[in-house]
Write a structure and sequence with these properties.
Layout (H helix, E strand, L loop, with lengths): L11 H10 L23 E3 L2 E3 L3 E3 L15 H12 L4 E2 L4 E3 L18 H19 L6 E7 L24 H4 L13 H21 L3 E4 L6 H5 L13 H4 L1 H13 L4 E7 L6 E3 L12 E3 L12 E2 L2 E5 L2 H14 L3 E5 L7 H4 L16 H18 L4 E4 L9 H10 L5 E4 L1 H5 L3 H6 L16 H7 L11 H4 L3 H10 L2
Parallel strand pairs: 3-4, 3-15, 4-6, 5-6, 6-7, 7-8, 8-13, 13-14, 14-15
Antiparallel strand pairs: 1-2, 9-10, 11-12
Helix pairs in contact: 2-3, 5-8
Length: 488
């Protein structure tokens, strides 16, 4: 398959032609505007009683650079310093912090326990101090902390799938992590779920005391909070109908509200999901992975959230919109960061990339299709629930044309804030350069979606931008990473 290389597209007009050729409807401006030119990206954003200084957001990241005890490491602090320097005025969770040690996604993920509060406070102050140093004030900087449990993707002690915890037996995903369909020992009991809810509330209280302005109750990417939303077959209070499947999230939010009256709450949500994909070995060429094709899944009622259960490759946003409206109107949750799918089993819909990670597959569609799919889904939610503050995802792949698209979708009211994740690892001050009217291309650090930041941790190494960040380029892991990629 031959897809468009964004770096080879010379003008915004050519970029729009590529979009039209793919039958993609997406606004794209001719030139990025600076703050002095009244860029839509420089406009303030009201969130509750707080005014966020602009429309740029840093997405939360799952670090592989903490200590075995769950404290931030040197590289964790370095990332948070870059968050502060980025020019983004909304730091969404910054770090995916497990609410307990068994819920870690890797043995070096930061996790909450009372002994680690000093480390979490250091992350916050590092970010704020860097922001004040570069921009003079942090009065309009909104910083939160993402709270998570990795569920079926738990790897708290080893770098393989040995300790998954699940909400229900999934007919396709169980085999991805080696769970026997007859083994119920991995399924969380109702009592274990209630204890976990208490852990979220305890972690949120600590975050508020440290000084974070909001917490994100993570409900995306196949992790525990996301899995509850598709627990159609789970009996009891935490599964079955919509009320049961959303109970875990609602009880966490209600508990946080009762304990932390001033703390804002956000939800990062996988707006839709597809079945898992795998490389088509019959179409592999030159030793490279084949393009992705969907795993076989049972006909009928597929357990997916935000998709047509009879045809899970088709989006159905009725329940996600119902959930967002309910959380906003009944529980006062103002902030939603909208993503899709999972990096573990269908990354092409979650983080479109030209180059797949070592355990992935070649994109089965032009990655631009995946970007626009997410952006238009968020637009549909914005039209349905205009009062909600929505942060959008899947912009990094636009590369040079990210600012052109970002300011256009903000102006058109498709979304309230544009989030960036992978890009921050390579070119962390791109938003600041754009708003200052500087040449953001000159440093040649724009993320090209090489996926090294995913391949490295998939193989037990620290995560960073090995191709474009000199700090990681010179590390010994860079050589090992090249060897691994040469074999995939």
């Amino acid at each position: 398959m031959s897809y468009h290389r964004i770096g080879a597209i010379k003008t915004a007009g050519e970029f729009r032609d590529v979009l039209r050729g793919l039958d993609l409807d997406l606004p794209c401006d001719d030139e990025p505007l600076s703050a002095a030119q009244d860029s839509p990206l420089a406009a303030p954003l009201r969130v509750g009683d707080f005014t966020v200084g602009n429309r740029w957001c840093v997405h939360p990241m799952e670090g592989w650079d903490g200590t075995a005890e769950g404290m931030p490491g040197e590289e964790t602090l370095r990332r948070w310093r870059h968050f502060g320097e980025s020019g983004c005025k909304l730091i969404w969770g910054g770090e995916a912090v497990a609410v307990e040690q068994p819920g870690r996604a890797n043995p070096n993920q930061v996790y909450y326990r009372p002994e680690n509060c000093g480390g979490l406070g250091a992350l916050l102050e590092t970010c704020r101090a860097a922001h004040r140093e570069r921009f003079g004030t942090d009065d309009d900087l909104l910083v939160g902390l993402q709270l998570t449990h990795s569920g079926r993707f738990c790897r708290p002690n080893r770098k393989d799938w040995t300790e998954p915890r699940i909400v229900y037996h999934h007919p396709v995903l169980d085999r991805r992590v080696g769970i026997d369909a007859e083994d119920d020992s991995r399924i969380l009991t109702d009592d274990e779920i209630r204890r976990l809810i208490d852990r979220y509330i305890e972690a949120a209280k600590a975050a508020a005391e440290i000084g974070f302005q909001f917490v994100d109750v993570k409900s995306c990417h196949g992790y525990l909070g996301h899995e509850f939303l598709s627990a159609f077959t789970r009996p009891g209070p935490y599964g079955g109908d919509f009320d049961g499947r959303t109970r875990f999230l609602r009880e966490i939010i209600d508990g946080i509200r009762a304990e932390c009256h001033e703390l804002m709450i956000g939800v990062r949500l996988s707006l839709f999901d597809f079945p898992p994909f795998h490389p088509d070995a019959s179409r592999a060429k030159g030793g490279k992975l084949g393009p992705g094709i969907a795993d076989d899944y049972p006909a009928g009622d597929y357990p997916g959230f935000g998709c047509n259960r009879s045809n899970p490759l088709e989006i159905d946003l009725s329940e996600p919109i119902q959930l967002i409206r309910q959380l906003l109107e009944e529980r006062g949750v103002p902030l939603f960061n909208l993503s899709a799918g999972s990096p573990y089993y269908n990354p092409h819909i979650q983080r479109p990339a030209f180059y797949p990670p070592s355990d992935g597959y070649q994109p089965p569609e032009d990655p631009l299709v995946g970007c626009v799919r997410q952006i238009r889904a968020v637009r549909e939610v914005k039209q349905a629930v205009p009062e909600a503050v929505l942060i959008g995802t899947a912009y990094t792949y636009f590369q040079e044309y990210l600012p052109h698209v970002a300011q256009a979708v903000i102006r058109e009211g498709w979304v309230d804030s544009v989030g960036i994740g992978r890009l921050v690892l390579s070119d962390w001050d791109l938003p600041a350069k754009v708003l200052a009217g500087e040449d953001y291309r000159a440093a040649k650090k724009i993320c090209r979606t090489f996926s090294d930041c995913t391949t490295a941790p998939r193989n037990g190494m620290i995560s960073g931008c090995f191709p474009l960040d000199p700090y990681f380029k010179e590390r010994p892991e860079a050589k090992e990473l090249k060897r691994i990629k040469s074999q995939s």
